[in-house]
Every structure is written in structure tokens, then in C-alpha cells.
Amino acid sequence: MQKYWALLALLFIFGSSYALTAPVDLRFENVLPGGFSEITLPITSNESTAIILSTAGPAAKWIVVSPSQGYANANFPLKARVMVKPPAEALPGTYIAYVITDQPNSDSATGYIGPAQTTKVLIEVTQKQIIQAQVNSIEVFEQDGKIVGLADVENTGNLNITPKLSLELQDAQLSADTTDVEILPSRTATIETKLPANSLSSNVYTVKASVYVGNELLRQESIPVSLGKSSDGKLQNLQISSLEVGKPAIITAVFENTGANAVLAQLKANVKNDLQTEQVESDKVIVASGQTANLTTYFTTSASGNYEIRGYVIFDKSATAEQQINVEAQKAVPLSLSAISLLLFAVIGLVLFFVAKRPKRKLSTRGGRWHSPKKK
Predict the structure, then answer these.
(1) Cα–Cα distance for residue pair 373/362, rounded to 1 Å
(2) CA gap 307, 240 in Å, rounded
(3) Potential cystine with 67: which of 95, 246, 252, 264 (Cβ 3.0-4.6 Å)?
(4) Edge-to-edge, what's the strand order for the sheet holding 174-178?
């Protein structure tokens, strides 16, 4: 009996799973036939574990999940992008699919363990075209003799948009704008405009920042910027952890406050590959005069290949010089079945089977010895 429980415990250890948490459903609204929409699917785990994502259901062919495998732990959830692309011939209506979150035993798993998490995907297809967007934030600061404007724009419609960020210094008769960023439906992007300011004298200027989609003004702010003052901060180092598809990569910036007063510092980084550009940022941290601080942010790679990472630190309406890192993301280790692990499970299963089938022993009254009951 003791052997039986030992083997059962061994099987439990090899087959134990961690608690995964995923949303119950995702709702895609107002998607055009032949259009596009995207929602982030966050997956958390109480312990570090590998995750495999797959699709099922009537509309499964419309869905792409990226990355389709990865890792999650208590500090870094796996943020998978669920992208919906209905065919051009899709009729208006509501369609259903499922994203299945499963958990292999290990990188050399014998199979899947624990109950799979199923997220229901509801896709509402419409023929009504919607041009709509919102501006989440606007920032203006001085960097390397230029006035830089950033606007975080979210496409809340179902058509591609090309927003414009305009910067204007009315006193100096200077202006600049940009329209080179196309944003797909449901996605958010940071658009940037730079206004040369080398010819301006040292002073505090008011910058009018305006964001448009077409002729529609989405948001406008007047922001003071001080030019000509010496830089009171320095980005000493920018580095990134190793890149592997599906795993969180940490970007770290070492910032030094060389000024006389404490500042509120924040790392901003643009992560670019062949597919798209992603903007990430750290939390804002107070850095005392003469002190250094590590500012960190992270992102999860969804595809292998070369990545260009440009980072800088914003502080006190100014920004440090930009630093750039070029790094290659390695392909994820396939979470496939292992013959060795499969054989191990087979052996344990057979042993448990024969132990359970062995005839029970009884205590003999002759000399206190164990013996099997005699066959009749």
C-alpha cells in the first residue's frame, strides 16, 4: 500500500498544474467584412508556467492569436493579441469562436495538464462604416534643441485612420505637423511631431498641440516649454534582457539626475520590428538630486526577427538624448511532446495498474506471516 501511494504521489508531481486565469469572453463590435479588429487577451498564473493558445468554433478561421505560445507568472502576464479578420463576403450578424488556453507539463511536455481555460469570442459583423478616435494623452517637451510632441491616439472606429499632430508656437511663428502613422481599428499608437527650435532664444514658450483626424479636431492643449536651459539629467545606459518569442523582455534605463532639484522621471521606448511599432513606458519615479535610478518597462515579442529599440527619459518638460539597441528575437522553444516523458508516464501508469490488480494479502494466524489467500 505504501508503494501505491508513493507512485501516486510521483504521478501527481509530474502532472501538477498551476492556476491559470483568462477572461471568460471577448467581444468584438462593429467589425466590417474584410476588416480588422484586435483585443488583448491577458493570461495570468500563480506560478511561472508555459502556455499554449489555440482556436476552435465556427469562426475560428477568422482569428489569429499572437503569440500562440508563451509564458506567464505572477508578475508578468502573457498578453496575447487576438486579431479578428472576417472575410469580405461575411454577412452582418454575430459569430462565435473560442480561444483555448492550455498548459503543457514543461518545455518537453508529454501532454497537457490541468483544466483548459476557454474564452468565448463574440464577433459582431456590420456594414456600417465608423470613423472615430480618441486621444488618451498629449505630451510636449524639449529634446536636443527640438520641441517634441507626442500624442497617444486610439482608433475606436472600424476604418483605418491617419491622425495628425500639429505643434504651433504663435509668438515665434513656427509650426509643424505629421500624418505618417496609420492606425488600424481598435489599435492605439503614439504619433510624434518635432519642431526645430535651435533659432529660438532661451525662454518659456507656450506650444499649442492639436490632434486631428481629417478635418475633425479631437483634442487641443496649450503646454509651456522652457528652452535654452542646460540639461539636468542623463541617460547613462539603456539595455534589454534576452528576447524570446512569447517571453517578457525587460528594458532598463539608468537615469542620473544632475540637477539641483528632484525630478519625476519616466522611460519611454519605441520597439520596432518588420510587423509593427509598439510604444512602452515605465512608471514615473522621483529621482533626488545627484542620484541615479533604474527605470524599467517590458514588452512581449510576438514574432522572431530583428528588433530596433529606441529609448529616452522624460523629466521636468525635458528629455535625455535617445539611445538605440538592435537585438534579434529568438524563436520560441516548441512546446511539443517528449518521447522520454511519455515513456515515463507509461511506465508509472503500468506499475499503478499492476499494483492495483495484485491480490490482497491477509495476515495468517500461523506465525504472524503475510501470505496470499489460497485459490479454491
Answers:
(1) 7
(2) 11
(3) 246
(4) 174-178, 164-169, 203-213, 216-227
Q: Nine-digit cell at 41?
A: 487577451
* Residues whose CB is less than 8 angstroms from the CB of residue 102 and which lie 6 or more positions away in sequence, other chains included: 51, 52, 53, 54, 112, 116, 117
The angle, 0 to 180 degrees and rounded to 10, between the axes of the packed helices 2-15 and 339-357 is 150
pTM assigned to the model: 0.75
Question: What residues does 51 pair with on adjacent strands?
Answer: 70
Instruction: For residue 313, give the nearest of 249, 239, 234, 250 by alpha carbon.
Output: 234
Query: Please, what sign has the CA dihedral across residues 46, 48, 49, 53?
Result: positive
Does domain 131-229 match CATH 3.40.50.150? no
User: What residue segments make up the domains of the chain, in order of their start?
Assistant: 15-125, 131-229, 231-337
Burial environment of residue 272 by CB neighbours within 10 A (0 to 12, 13 to 18, 19 or more): middle
* pLDDT tens-digit readout, 332-368: 655 543 333 344 444 445 554 455 555 555 444 444 4
**CATH assignment of 15-125, given 3.40.50.620, 2.60.40.10, 3.40.50.10470, 3.40.640.10?**
2.60.40.10
Length of the chain: 376
Per residue in 5-28, is it b (16+ CB within 10 Å) or e — as a string? Answer: eeeeeebeeeeebbebebbeebeb
Q: Which helix (H) or strand (E) holds 11?
A: helix 2-15
C-alpha cell at 142: 524639449
Phi, psi of 351 (to 5 degrees): -65, -45
* CATH topology match: 131-229 vs 231-337: yes
Distance in angstroms (rounded) separating the CA atoms of residues 80 and 348? 36
The three grid cell numbers given for residue 340, joined into one nine-digit string? 522520454
Per-residue pLDDT at 273? 84
Q: What pLDDT score does 105 carry?
A: 58
**Could you tell me the three cell numbers for 177?**
505637423
Task: State which residues of the chain have pLDDT below 70.
Answer: 1-18, 105-115, 228-231, 332-376
φ/ψ of residue 216, rounded to 5: -90, 125
CA distance 165 to 148: 11
Q: Does domain 231-337 have CATH number 3.40.630.30?
A: no
Cα separation, 277 vs 273, in Å, equals 7
